[in-house]
Design goal:
Distance between the termini: 21 Å
Number of strands: 2
Strand content: under 5%
Radius of gyration: 16 Å
Order of helices and strands: HHHHHHHHEHHE
């Protein structure tokens, strides 16, 4: 018998695997938090499956999502990324990735880790919602508005409330699996 899943993942094997093993699992590791932040900023205005299909290309193009290396990217690396057909070649998003890596380092310096900063908004614990249907799940919340505003104040780009909420869902700050999804009680 098939497991009941959130309807957004459909039947695409890559999407299903992501839903079943990654989405909503609490992440406290700074390297992984940055990877998701970078990918979410490139997702803005696109579907997540588009980014997910290019995830390994992004990993190669952005030096394994090493934010310390990305923060030091120069114009030559920027030009290389603009011409990389394996990623989303949006100039503003590529610039944002570099800017965000630089801002990320500053947040780490101030809070000891980016994890401390982000999870500080939820007292270190996931928020478990109780959505019955995917149509009940919001695109933003008052908390994502607050985090978005604070990130922007710290110099981050492409971190509107919708991007921030998607990031919160992906890294398990909120459990937005619907209540009849088999993952709801597992994460």
């Amino acid at each position: 018998m098939d497991k009941k899943r959130c309807s957004w993942c459909g039947k695409d094997p890559l999407y299903v695997a992501y839903h079943d093993t990654v989405w909503g699992v609490p992440v406290y590791d700074d390297a992984m938090l940055f990877e998701f932040l970078l990918l979410e900023t490139f997702q803005a205005g696109l579907s997540w499956i588009t980014v997910l299909r290019k995830r390994e290309n992004f990993r190669i193009a952005f030096d394994g999502f090493d934010y310390k290396k990305i923060a030091a990217y120069d114009n030559n690396k920027f030009e290389e990324l603009i011409h990389n057909a394996g990623i989303i070649r949006n100039k503003l998003k590529i610039k944002a990735a570099i800017t965000n890596a630089q801002a990320y380092l500053k947040v780490q310096e101030e809070f000891g880790s980016f994890s401390n900063y982000m999870w500080g908004f939820t007292s270190g614990k996931p928020i478990k919602n109780s959505w019955r249907s995917i149509t009940d799940v919001p695109a933003t919340t008052a908390l994502s508005d607050q985090i978005s505003k604070d990130l922007k104040k710290r110099g981050f780009k492409f971190v509107g409330s919708t991007v921030v909420y998607a990031h919160m869902q992906a890294v398990g700050m909120v459990n937005d699996h619907v209540t009849d999804c088999f993952r709801y009680n597992e994460v």
